[in-house]
Design goal:
Blueprint: H1 4-9, H2 21-25, H3 36-40, H4 42-68, H5 74-77, H6 87-105, H7 111-122, H8 126-144, H9 152-166, H10 175-195, H11 210-222, H12 228-250, H13 253-256, H14 258-263, H15 267-289, H16 299-302
Keywords: Nucleus
InterPro entries: DHMBA_Reg_Transcription_Factor, Zn2-C6_fun-type_DNA-bd_sf, Zn2Cys6_DnaBD
Domain Zn(2)-C6 fungal-type: 2-30
């Protein structure tokens, strides 16, 4: 406290007004005293001044950095834009995979779905990763009714990578290749359920790619490369084929037309013979697909021996 002159000289001021005694002795014009408001808020003023100075210094550094970068030329301005990686795509894929694990794999009783997360952790095979993302995104898009997420690009990438890897015999012993075919079929099932269209195949109409998967299982068992994954995938296809056989029988016109049984009882025997023929034919198709006996401990002994080519 004191007049401005005494404060600058760091001497004691007698606080006389309107001029202090020191200024009178030195015959100086006393500059006066600071007002009460400035004395009360002098600490806040110093803090605000310090913050302002820091902000000014930061802006000056930014301007200096901008001046160091070379200016854009006309050719660079009109050049094609550079593609920037979209992190949101990766996040959607991660969410979709976890969603499929939660809906289909966790607490599942089907061996092929139980093994799916473990194979995903222990492998980095390109066809499997593309097929996993394709099936997962298709599953999430169907549940969320956001069909724009349908990953046709992932599906095409998985098929292309599968064509390349399946031509190498060393890759066929990898369980991830077999699971890739299974996931491609799962993707097709989700797509055809949404679009309500039928996918015609040789054996399993409700699960495409089954013929290729079964052919790969036959090859792996003959070469003694099969594992528990082969048994799980084979049992899944067998269950689907049995369910489909009953579904096809129920949709037979001879069984669905109940009025024939009511109006013409004599046709019951004939229709029963037709139903028996259809049932026998369906289970013969099961045998051609390689359905093992329920008591068989290993698929290798019971799979049929005739060769089957893989259409990949």
């Amino acid at each position: 406290m004191g007049c401005f002159s005494c404060k600058d000289s760091r001497v004691k001021c007698d606080l006389e007004k309107p001029s202090c005694g020191r200024c009178k002795r030195l015959t100086h014009v006393c500059p006066g005293y600071p007002d009460t408001w400035s004395l009360i808020h002098r600490q806040q003023n110093e803090q605000v001044s310090r913050k302002v100075q820091l902000r000014v210094n930061r802006q000056q550094r930014l301007r200096q950095n901008n001046t160091d970068t070379p200016p854009l030329t006309a050719s660079a301005i009109h050049a094609s834009p550079v593609s920037v990686s979209r992190d949101i795509d990766q996040n959607v894929q991660i969410y979709a995979v976890h969603r499929m694990y939660y809906d289909l794999c966790f607490d599942a009783s089907v061996g092929v779905f139980v093994a799916l997360p473990f194979i995903a952790v222990n492998t980095s095979v390109s066809p499997f990763m593309h097929a996993l993302q394709a099936a997962a995104l298709a599953h999430s898009s169907a549940n969320l009714n956001q069909y724009g997420l349908l990953p046709k690009l992932e599906y095409c990438a998985a098929v292309s990578a599968l064509k390349r890897d399946i031509a190498e015999p060393a890759q066929l012993q990898n369980d991830a290749i077999l699971m890739s075919i299974f996931l491609l079929g799962l993707f097709e099932v989700i797509v055809q359920q949404r679009s309500e269209r039928k996918v015609e195949t040789d054996g399993l109409k409700c699960h495409p790619h089954a013929t290729g998967a079964l052919a790969l299982i036959r090859y792996r068992t003959r070469q003694k490369l099969d594992s528990s994954i082969d048994i799980s995938v084979f049992q899944f296809y067998r269950h689907v084929r049995v369910s489909q056989s009953f579904h096809d029988i129920a949709k037979s016109p001879t069984l669905a037309d109940v009025d024939i049984f009511r109006t013409d009882p004599s046709s019951l025997k004939t229709d029963f013979q037709i139903w028996l023929h259809l049932s026998t034919k369906s289970f013969r198709q099961l045998q051609t697909l390689g359905m093992p006996h329920p008591l068989s401990p290993n698929v290798r002994v019971l799979l049929p021996t005739p060769g089957t080519s893989m259409d990949y």
